[in-house]
TrEMBL record:
PANTHER family: OS03G0429900 PROTEIN
SUPFAM superfamilies in the record: Nucleic acid-binding proteins (SSF50249)
Chain ranges of the Replication protein A 70 kDa DNA-binding subunit B/D first OB fold domain: 2-92
The species this protein was found in: Dorcoceras hygrometricum
GO molecular function: DNA binding
InterPro entries attached to this UniProt entry: NA-bd_OB-fold, RFA1B/D_OB_1st
Organism placement in taxonomy: Eukaryota, Viridiplantae, Streptophyta, Embryophyta, Tracheophyta
Protein name from the UniProt record: Replication protein A 70 kDa DNA-binding subunit B-like
Domain of life: Eukaryota
Residues in coiled coil: none
Keywords: DNA-binding
Pfam family, one: DUF223
Length: 161
């Protein structure tokens, strides 16, 4: 628990905590000064305390956290660990112009096409949406989920012709 970290928030999103309970957790991806990423989970007891503070792209000092093995099925980082916020966690926005802002984890179209990435890992790509299907409802992880299939065009390929 005696950790004190300086991290930039890359992204936050809500995830249902339990089936049909209506509760959710706030899931976050942070990066450190070297650009290494770590996932963090903020559960209900801490949610109201930090939700209004956490903003994508902002830099934070975070202390009193639990570091645990990351056992999530779909991972947002390659780190084998994740952070869990607890009731004693303290989060404070700080300002440091020398701290880098590495907001994206880009993968090339070749990496995606050649399956050189872990399919359960989240990543970023740049492309132009050239087609999309109608939204479909599917069961995913025991929950009804709406999915939208899109087709992206690779700008590098278009501009190299």
């Amino acid at each position: 628990m005696q950790w004190a970290l300086k991290l930039r928030l890359v992204r936050c999103y809500e995830l249902p905590a339990y089936e049909k309970s209506g509760d959710f957790t706030l899931e976050c991806v942070f990066h450190d000064k070297e650009g290494d990423r770590i996932h963090a989970s903020v559960k209900k007891p801490v949610l109201d305390k930090v939700r209004h503070i956490l903003k994508d792209g902002h830099l934070f000092a975070i202390k009193n956290i639990i570091v645990a093995e990351n056992r999530m099925k779909y991972k947002t980082t390659t780190s084998k660990y994740k952070i869990n916020f607890i009731t004693k966690t303290h989060v404070c926005e700080i300002f440091d112009d020398s701290f880098p802002s590495i907001m994206f984890d880009f993968k090339s179209f070749n990496d995606v096409k050649n399956a050189e990435i872990e399919e359960t890992m989240l990543f970023d790509v740049i492309g132009q949406v050239v087609a999309r299907d109608s939204p479909q409802s599917r069961e995913f992880g025991g929950r009804e989920t709406r999915l939208l299939d899109i087709v992206l065009q690779d700008y590098e390929y278009v501009y190299s012709l």
